[in-house]
Predict the structure of Fe2OG dioxygenase domain-containing protein.
Amino acid sequence: MPPLGLLPGIICNRPCTLLICICITSSILLSVNTCEPCELQLINHGVPDEVIGNLMSDVAGFFKQPLEDKKEWSQQADSLEGYGQAFVVSDDQKLDWADMLYLQVQPSESRDMRFWPTRPASFRRSVDAYSSEARELAYRLLEFMAKGVGAEPASLRGVFEGQAQGMRMNYYPPCRQAADRVLGLSPHTDPNGLTLLMQTSHDVHGLQVKRDGRWFAVEALDGAFVVNVGDALEILSNGVFRSVEHRAVIHPTKERISVALFHYPYQDRMLGPLPELVKKGDKVQYGPTNYQDFLQQYFTAELDGRKHLERFQLE
C-alpha cells in the first residue's frame, strides 16, 4: 500500500457521518469535532477493489450455503470464534435477527483454523488478503488521529501494531412481517479501538448511530469504509475520541451483508489514558483497567448501549 495522507477537507454530509478522502499527494490533516461520537467514511483508501470484491463475494457465498454446511464451523464452548449468534447469555433473551461468523484473523499465528470455512474454496485466501490490507490502513488512520490532536503519530499506532484483529461477518435477512420490531444487532459500542466496516447493498441503510438520544441511519457509500471509534480508543484518548453507540436494523424486503474488522490494543497490559493524550488541565476520566477483564465482562453480558464503558469511568 502506498503512503497515505488525508485530503485537507472533511465533508459532514449527515448529522453523524464525516466523509474523509485519502490521497497519496496531500498533507496529513485530521480536523474532527472529537467530543461528539461520529461515524467516519473513508474513500480513496488504497485497499484494492479486487481485494474487497473477493472478500465480499466469498462471505456472501458462505452465508448462501445450507444451514448444515455452515454448522460445520459452529462456535464451541472454548471459543468466541465460529458460526453462530454472539452475546447469548441466557435461554430466554431475545436474539438478534442475523447470521454471524467471527474469526481471529491477525496475527496469522493466532488463527484457529477449526473455524475457517473451506467453502467457497477461495474464502481463506480472501480473508487473509483483505485483513492484511485493512490492518495497514487502520495503522495509518491511528497515526492521523494522534497527529490531529497534537500527539506523536506513533503514540496510538504503537498500542495496536501487531496486536489482535478480529473479523465478524454478518448476514441480515429481510423480515417483512416484523422489520420494525426486530434488530439485526442490538445497541452497543465496540470494545476494541478502531473498527473498519464494509457492506454490500448500499441502498439498505441498516447501520444506525445514536447521537443526542436519536438514531440516525448511516448512508454508506459504495467502496467506502465506515470507521467506528471503540471503547479502548476512548479510554486511551481520555475521551478525546468518543466510542460510537450503534445498532443494525432490518429491511422488510432486502438482505444486507457487512464485514467488521476489529483492531484491538495490547491485551496483556493495563489500559488507561495515554499521558500524551491527556490535555493539560483536563481531568483523567478513566483509571487503569485490566483489558483482559474488560473484554471478559463485555463478551459475557448482553449488549446494552454505552453502559459497559460507563462503568469504567472515574467519578
The first strand starts at residue 5 and ends at 14. The CA atoms of residues 43 and 224 lie 5 Å apart.
